[in-house]
Amino acid sequence: MTRAEILRWLREEDPATLDVLWARADAVRRERVGDAVHLRGLVEISNHCVRRCAYCGISLGRPDLVRYRMSADEIAACADRAAELGYGTVVLQSGEDPGITREWVSDLVRRVKANGRLAVTLSLGERPEPDLAAWRDAGADRYLLRFETSDAALYERIHPPLAGRPPGRFAILERLAALGYEVGSGVMIGIPGQTYESLAADVALFAGMDLDMIGVGPFIPHPASPLGRGEFPQAPAGEQVPSTELMTCKVVALARLVCPEANIPATTALATVNPQDGREHGLARGANVLMPNLTPARYRALYEIHPGKACLREGAAEPGAGGRGRIERMGRTPGSGPGSRRRRPRGTPSSSSGP
Length: 355
Hints:
It is a single chain. By secondary structure, this protein is an alpha/beta fold. It has one domain (3-334): Alpha-Beta Barrel (TIM Barrel). The chain has 13 helices and eight strands. The protein has helices at residues 3-11, 15-33, 72-84, 102-113, 129-138, 152-158, 169-179, 196-209, 245-258, 268-273, 278-284, 297-300, 318-329, and strands at residues 36-46, 89-94, 119-123, 142-144, 182-189, 213-218, 289-290, 333-334. Strands 1, 2, 3, 4, 5, 6, 7 and 8 form an eight-stranded parallel sheet that branches. α4 runs parallel beside α5 (129-138) and α8 (196-209) packs parallel to α9 (245-258). The chain starts with a helix and ends in a 21-residue tail after the last strand. Mean pLDDT is 90; it is low at 345-355.
């Protein structure tokens, strides 16, 4: 799919024409990754963060926020719960927290992997290569690091760099692949200043990076953040990408077409903008993963990257029961095992082109 075609789909508003996109994405999903919906148990292990990202509710710029770090025993209990619920993966996510040390995470990964039932995905921000290598050696299977936007100027506007550390997400993503991780990345949809051209470049980049996992969600700033206070300008009229469920679903569908074998979640943010059936729309338009939140209730509200998180309205057991019901009502099946990416044979085109 060319960048011009991606751009045309991003600008498309006609429901009947978009039905063609949804049908194509769903057909490619069915052909390339099947009807299984893989469940990844998300555990938000720390809300400490050294970054001052301009949209985030756990930014260092929130001195009023009560901070926490879960203990290894608490995290291991959540991983055991994920296995009991039949999930194939546990996702350990945090702010960019230097207090979570290389050795501590290595020990934790080995402990979770010891039961032999779960893949481990890490999402711990930009970490030095020795940390990433040690965690891979300990048994971590995947790493998630969204690049958010490929527009360098826009990225730097919303992600003030740390002193002495140049922005390096793309370099880190390359190193993760070289270390043998399955690599996940993605973008936010509707950042103030994000244009259709910029977003089209992001989608084209997914294919160029050959990502194993792609996470996209609508831009939802925390009200206590600079972006939540409206301090950043929009793109010119007619060029600003809206932060809507519809636009997010377009990007989910296009991601499926340009990276047919990738694992693509129907994200919590999508469920936040449409609590009733946002996840279903994502699953019907190319997604094949759900990430139920298994963070203990006493911590969950403190990991409020954006307001109105869907998981705050759901009980801890809902993803195991209600989530499976949701999957089955769509004619899909809950996945089994770790749900690693199925790679296509060499020489197979990554996607078909044209409408």
